[in-house]
Amino acid sequence: MPAAIYIKDLSKKYGTFEALRNIDLEIPTGEFFGLLGPNGAGKTTLINTLVGLAKKNAGTVEVLGHDVGADYIKTKSLIGLSPQEVNVDRFFKVRKLLEFQGGFYGMPRGERRARAEELLIQFDLKDKMDVQFWRLSGGMQKRVMVARSMMASPKILILDEPTSGVDVEQRHDLWGFLRGLNADGTTIILTTHFIDEAEQLCERVGIIARGQVIEMGAPQDLISKHCEQFFRVNGERKDQLNGYKVNDIEIQRGSLEEVFLKVTGHSIHEEQTDRAHD
Length: 278
Ligand SMILES: Nc1ncnc2c1ncn2[C@@H]1O[C@H](COP(=O)(O)OP(=O)(O)O)[C@@H](O)[C@H]1O
Ligand SMILES: [Mg+2]
Prior knowledge:
Elements: E1 5-14, E2 17-27, E3 32-36, H1 43-50, E4 58-63, E5 66-67, H2 72-78, E6 79-82, H3 94-104, H4 109-122, H5 138-149, E7 156-160, H6 168-183, E8 187-192, H7 195-201, E9 204-209, E10 212-217, H8 219-226, E11 230-233, E12 236-238, E13 249-252, H9 256-264
Parallel strand pairs: 3-8, 3-9, 6-7, 7-8
Antiparallel strand pairs: 1-2, 1-4, 4-5, 9-10, 11-12, 11-13
This protein binds adenosine-5'-diphosphate and magnesium ion.
């Protein structure tokens, strides 16, 4: 079976500015993959090249074996996108937004209705179906956006910053829905600048900074690779554990945050807007 996403040597420029440089990325079918990086790293640009919203300058981009440029109609039908910026008519009611989306994919009226109903139930939105989008909380809006992107039952779901601006409780709700979709067989790719989100949800994480994917792997593998493990007793680092009680010994394991700092030299919270700096 071809990979869900296959990217080789992808480069993208805005004018002379290189937003993406020599990206190689292969995501197998069924994976829950996270693209982790600070603001300005190139996450949205990478997503946009996958869904045909940004034109690449060089390289190969394939979705389930189909070229995104040559086979645009096909690849578009395979992907559901929940974009970073809300791109819907905020005065539409929730159910209408879903049904309308089905229309873009040529679903007949009856099928649109049935699929919208199914998703309203699946995403626990049934009691909100006649509410205008703008009246919903940020977290609920994101949930509607995800449900909407699943209207045509795509094999691959791409979420660009699904939980930015969403409060903690609603964030965890959304994570639950995403885990459910992935368990049902949907390949999920999300971008995030929240380290815990990547760590909690993703089987593999790609760390992106200044337009390059600089490290990739399962969160635990990355932590083992980059973070030293050592022991503490009463907060102090110890190399020798003889004589200490087992209950007082704490293992320092490292975190994805530490991995990020090690491989990029920056905290994820620093914005990457300084284009001249390299
Ligand atoms: N349409 C555009 N024209 C020019 N520069 C852009 C455009 N879109 C994004 N950029 C620049 O490309 C870089 C990556 O942006 P983006 O992909 O939005 O990053 P992220 O999603 O990781 O925050 C940033 O420096 C941004 O300013
Ligand atoms: Mg972005």
